[in-house]
Structure formats: structure tokens, C-alpha cells
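Backbones bend. We report:
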Amino acid sequence: AYSTPDPLLRATGDCGVIGLFFLLRPGEHVKAAADNDTSPFRLRDVEFLLGHSCYNAATCDLALIPSPNQVHLTFTNQKNGECGEKPANGSTAQVLMSPIHAVLRRVRHLQEHNAPPDTPLHTVFLPAGITTQVTSNRLTAMLRRTCRLMPELGLQPSEISARALRAGGAMALLC
């Protein structure tokens, strides 16, 4: 995804990283196939921390926070009824597999296109003024292509889906 200039492929990669690290259901980080399973994170739901300062992605200038320590996503609507929870993630040694950098890339893309605060993070602005979304089907297809390219992982493409990122992220934490 990151070796191409295609903004939709890049966004799909970022949404996969965000889903894995934040242990999200598909309707939270990508456009889900079922409309009743969606509460996507929006630009206004993102906060970056740098030291003791907190910056909301809908109103901040990212130039002021080139290397945040943490990223928070605010749950405004959850299945369990708990609203306002803000899970946080720090960075990893891998820029492409870092929750902070994946969210930063999504926020930069949205800010470059003057997206309003209610814009879902999975929104992608394409050339010629076209707007689209990263969907759960698109993310599933990308994950399955990756499995075919990396047979040493021992995974069958049919075993992988956008929904599997939640369980896979939890297992990665356990391991």
C-alpha cells in the first residue's frame, strides 16, 4: 500500500494499522458493509499528545506537533454504552506500523482537503474532486493479498478479514 501513490491504497493500509492497534470493529475504522454496524471515528475524535499538551485533530495545526507521544481516539458511541472513552497508543519502532503515524497520515490527508470535523477517518479524497471511503471489503481484500504474498505467515487468505484485526491485535498484545 505504501509503495504506491494511490491515496485509497495508502488509506487502506493506514486504516488496517489503526484497526489492529486500537482493537476496533470494522465500522469504527473503515466503512462497514452493514450500516447498522457503524460508528466511525471522525476527525474531531482524534487527539494527539505532545508532553502534557493535548491537540484536537479537527482544530490543530499538525506543524505544531511533528512528533506526538500518543494518539487518542474518543469513542462517542459504543456497543457497551460507555461513551467518551479515549484509548491511547504510542509509537512503535516501525513508522509504517505505528498507530500514531497511521492516524497522523489520515489526519494530514483530511486536513489537506479541508475536511470538516465530522469527516470519518476512512474518507479518502481522490483526484478530480472525487471522495470515497475505505471499506471493510477493500481492507479484507488487501489483507488477503498480503497473505498470498507471505505464505511463511502460515495463514490462509480465507482466514483473514477486516473483522479479524480486532482478535489479531488482542493476540499480538497477549504474545
Q: What stands out?
A: The mean pLDDT is 87. Helices lie at 7-22, 26-29, 99-112, 136-149, 164-174. DSSP finds five helices and six strands in the chain.
